[in-house]
Amino acid sequence: MRRPKVLTIAGSDTSAGAGIQADLMTLADFNAEGKTVVTALTAQTPNAVFAVEPVGNRILQEQLSAVKHIALRGIKIGLIVAPAQVAIIANFIRQLRQKTAAELWVVLDPVLNASAGSQLQLPGTLEAIQSQLLPLVDVITPNLDEAEVLTGLRPTAPNDRVQAAMQIQRMGPGSVVIKGGHDTAGHCLDYGLCGQNHYWLQSPRQAVSNSHGTGCRFSSAIAALLARDYPLKDALTLAKAYINHSLALAKDSPEANLPHPGWPENIELFPRALPNALQNPEPLELPPGPGFAPCKTKPLGLYPVVDSVDWITRLIPLAVKTLQIRLKHAGPDELRQQLTEAIALCRENEVQLFINDHWQLAIELDAYGVHLGQEDLLKADLSAIARAGLRLGVSTHGEYEMMLAHSLKPSYMAFGAIFDTKTKDMSGQLQGTERLGRYVRLIKNCPQVAIGGINADNLDSVLATGIESVAVVSAITEAEDVRARVKVFQSRLEGLTC
Ligand SMILES: Cc1ncc(COP(=O)(O)OP(=O)(O)O)c(N)n1
Ligand SMILES: Cc1nc(C(=O)O)sc1CCOP(=O)(O)O
Ligand SMILES: [Mg+2]
Fold first, then answer.
1. What's 5-274's CATH class?
2. Which ligand is nearest to the CA of 472?
3. 357 known member of a binding site
4. Where does 2-[(2R,5Z)-2-carboxy-4-methylthiazol-5(2H)-ylidene]ethyl phosphate bind (predicted)?
């Protein structure tokens, strides 16, 4: 799917800073093809609304009929001005869902804040949205004012944000994103309740004289990204980076529209992912001191991940310089014995050996490095790993996890799973080469490794992204001729650095 089709159902804004005009430009920035259904005409500048006129029910219905045959992957809903409009739109979504088995994401930007709401909406619209539309919505993106209108509680503190999101979730939407753009602290804290998972994103507050249209852009970006099969946590991360970029480029004029800056490509403008703002409203802290030791060999090159000392013994004579031992089923005695042998063998042969998961043993046995997944990362004593001089490699699956890992300045970051793999269930976490290319361009000063489903046949497409190291399991361990397979990988990877 190159350019998924996404419909925006919203009001027209004469200033083009918000509404359907801003939605279309945002959808284009995220490579989605926009379709439009107009709910109202407005006459406005970035800072004043002069007139709002709802379109009649018949023309609203006709517009929806005209797009109902399009294979839509996403719908973004913005301004709705009358209860009758809510009923027509809800009916349209119900019919579309009945008609097609394909996934259709519906994102609602509720445009409900008390002051604008009183100017823009007819009485009964809010109640109609709550009773008829919310049960059909996948993601709702209220700001603090709108969350307060929906729940009666202003969710200022992180815990209130969770409570408010849960309350809104009970009204129907599977996911609730409470935007922190109106936070008064030095940072904005955005919170996503996605099913039962909690995601927190922190960005420095940017004071601009006109932030008109940020809500429209944010929700349109999310709709486009969901339509492109991004998981919601990654869509949030990218949508926030987009808003941050737009605000950073804003002209200091109340009349100037915020720019549409294109796909986010500057890591400095990405939000920081916080593991759990309830326990700790700060980003994961870098361990004090010099941080994690760098890897000696850069790039890591071919990086086989194996499950025994036997495999390490076979691969060392083939000039493999980076290895990982990944033991998932060994009991404590066998684990200690295998790791002790593997570490000694690799040290003797100047091979960089990473221990998967078992960071305490890795420290105790003075290993070269450890590799941790995101969940282990939150439980591990990162300062102890850094103090002991061990390298740290971190798994990431998408932009949200990438931002969590990036704040730690690890010795390398792994991006996966690039392709489907039989070695581990990675469903819902496949990245593909287009996304891999974006990670490679974003992360400038940390060695990078791609993993997941990489084999001799698809290696060229992986290397075309600019990645210089690949971690593989089955491509090596299931090769008929291991020596020949290692050579294939080595020659293509070495070719990159010649
Ligand atoms: C290089 C590399 N990248 C990713 C992984 C996956 O690690 P993790 O997320 O900890 O999952 P398990 O390997 O423990 O199943 C890896 N091992 N190596
Ligand atoms: C262990 C593992 N971790 C992944 C991740 O994306 O984090 S993918 C993966 C399996 C890699 O095996 P193969 O090379 O056989 O596909
Ligand atoms: Mg692990």
1. alpha beta
2. 2
3. yes
4. 421-423, 453, 473-474
Facing residues of 38 across strands? 10
Please, are residues 282 and 451 in contact by the beta-carbon 8 Å criterion? no
Q: Which residues pair with 37 in a beta bridge?
A: 9
Rounded CA-CA distance 177/487 in Å is 49
Average pLDDT of the chain to the nearest whole number: 93
What's this model's pTM, rounded to 2 decimal places?
0.95
Specify the DSSP element, H or E, that contains 371: strand 369-372
> Which residue has its alpha carbon closest to ligand 2 atom 8?
452
- Give the Å distance between the CA of 373 and the centre of ligand 1: 6
- CA nearest 181: which of 153, 201, 196? 201
Using an 8 Å Cβ cutoff, are 421 and 402 in contact? no
Neighbours of 174 (CB within 10 A): 14
Q: Using alpha carbons, list the distances in angstroms from residue 103 to 33, 138, 205, 229.
A: 16, 11, 35, 10
Inter-residue contact 461 to 315 (CB < 8 Å):
no
CA distances from 173 to 65, 110, 141, 164, 471 (A): 25, 12, 10, 13, 39
Q: Identify the pLDDT of residue 262.
A: 97
Kindly state the tokens that stand for 359: 């960071």
Q: How confident is the model at residue 285 (pLDDT cuts 50, 70, 90)?
A: low
| Calpha distance 40→82 (Å, rounded) | 10
- Residue 371 Cα to ligand 3 midpoint, Å, equals 7
- Would the CB of 132 count as within 6 Å of ligand 2? no
Q: Work out the average pLDDT over 211-215.
A: 91
In CATH, the architecture of 302-497 is Alpha-Beta Barrel (3.20)
The pLDDT of residue 485 is 98
pLDDT band at 498 (very low <50, low <70, confident <90, very high): very low
- From-to residues of CATH 3.40.1190.20 in the chain: 5-274
* Percent of the chain whose predicted confidence (pLDDT) is above 70: 95
Q: How far is Cα 188 from Cα 344, in angstroms, rounded to an integer?
A: 48
Q: Which one, of 115, 23, 134, 130, lies nearest residue 78 by Cα? A: 23
